[in-house]
Amino acid sequence: MPEISNNEGQLVTDASPTAPRRPGEPALAALGLAAPALSPDDASPHTFPGGGRWRTEVPSVEGPEALAVVLKEASRLDVPIHRISQGSGIWMLTDAEITEMVEATGERDIELCLFTGPRGNWDIGASVRTDSRGAGLRARGHDAVAGCVEDAVRATELGVKCLLVADEGVLWTLHRARVAGILPTDTTFKVSALIGPVNPASYAVYEKLGGDSLNVPSDLTLDHLTEIRRVSAAPMDMYIEAPDDLGGYIRMYEVAELIRRGAPLYLKFGLSKTPGIYPYGHHLRDLTLSTARERVRRGRLALDLLSRHGAGGDMAPLGSRLPGTLSRFDTPS
After folding, report:
1. Range list of H helices, 78-140
2. Rg for the chain (alpha carbons), in Å?
3. What whole-number distance in Å separates Cα of residue 291 and Cα of residue 265?
4. Which of these, 210, 159, 215, lies nearest to 188 by C-alpha position?
5. DSSP letter string, 257-286
6. The whole model's pTM is what?
């Protein structure tokens, strides 16, 4: 290892990695337990426009107060943030609250993503409460789609540039509205983890329907990510730590390999072992603020792992948000 001088002029060993390595690799190799060499054939060839293979996202930031906590903690722990997302829904925020969040994220050049419209689990329909979870969390009926469109128009008029969507029909409708100029042309649509695609064919369909970044379930294997990247370059979102209602998976030690296979990839800093907070209200304030703070800390832990493994150098520039040129279905004239 190279030697460097500390503040007192003493020679110390620089323990920082000089080349990418896998977790535990030097020790395991010394014991004759080295893993097979990585194959370049399963690495993603894609990047974000403007460079970089990964961006960061802090989810479940449910209002201006939680946002202030996240921004303060991110500054304290030096956690770079590309995107802030919210899960309760646009209709759960006042115009003043949305405006405050738009201004706070805009000052720091962070993308703000708010969830559209009513979802099936808050509808009067009983199918999502059955064992089969029939119909999922999608928008049931014309009125639910209309609510999502109303949310989208209202949010974009207030300056929101990214919308979270949990229904294929809503996604296609909003994409058509974007093409028609009803929504700003630089609006981006993020496909929710609640309906995330699980195979390359469905991933490609969501991209063609208008998805600009697609949240895949956190239990997809590394080979699944490679399969997806062979058919689509659309940005992928993945919980590095998933909430319990999405499985509670913790994949921090895989972050470098997730990026290698899945780039361009948003690293989502979720949190397991905590109660749900959707739809948010003041009665959940203490839990929401404390979990917001801990999500940022989880981000610091993931970034530290990347750094220790020599794999942290491919972050996309802060302030970047657009997905690049993607493949779409033709929209009706």
Report:
1. 95-107
2. 21
3. 23
4. 210
5. HHHHHH-SEEEEE--SSS---PSP-GGGHH
6. 0.89
